[in-house]
Amino acid sequence: MKRATKRRVRLIKQTTHLDTARCIFCGSPKVTREHVFSRWLHRFLPTRPNRHSNVRIAVDHKGRIDLADDLKLNFPLRDWQIKCVCGNYKGCCNNEWMRDLEDLARPIIEPMLHGVRLRLSEADQKTIATWAILKVMVVHHRFVHHMQRKQMREKREPPRYWSVWISNFSGRTDDGHWLVRPLSFNVTGSRRRPNRTGAVPNSHATTQIIKNLLLIHVVKLPLDSFGAEWRFRDQAGAPLKGAVLRIWPPTGQSLLWPQNPLNVQEALVVADAVDVAFRRLAVEQGLL
To answer: Where are the domains of the chain?
Structure first.
């Protein structure tokens, strides 16, 4: 593995464990450990006897992708904690607005995980999207600009440049999965800092799979029209058989759940699609 690739892998591995001295949302020094997945989700996650989880990370390097696959967390996903938000006092982020978002999301997501047939309103979709983006901000806070974290705290809604899709998933994930593709682009969509592969990314595509039922795909990319225009395709350019439902930016429509599920191969296509597409664009523009 090349030196630049090693730097990027080291950076990403740090972000899955990186503690901070101050709250990433408000700056308070009274930081506590935050569970990435709250207790009510633990029944849908791998059991503790399975003592590891998979974090799949892909790293770009000068015209190719070096895949650092199945980086192991030395604990199950249910025990994943990061010390980066304030807690244990009145008005703190963890016990106030973050808990409020969790309380709003739970009655929507829990029936989905039980396979209940329902219709997701626009408000439901926004709640799920905000909840999912908050999780990504906590895990990969080093990838997220502080003003976007501040906006999340103040407005409690997805900041600009974020997009979210959900899918019913029929595959098998015994260990639980959190997949991340770090991306570095400028506002025109081409790669930035072509000679600094190890630099901190300004974008990312993150996929989390909860149980064998729900796939949530979150993308942060500095393109206003991206979320509304993007379509997922297989390697041959055909639409996927499984349904990938955009819930943010808003579509203006309610959604029936569940719909046709993704299989494992299609889930990997979704996880990798944005990076593959923009890497191809960068090659065409001579940036890689």
So the answer is: 3-284
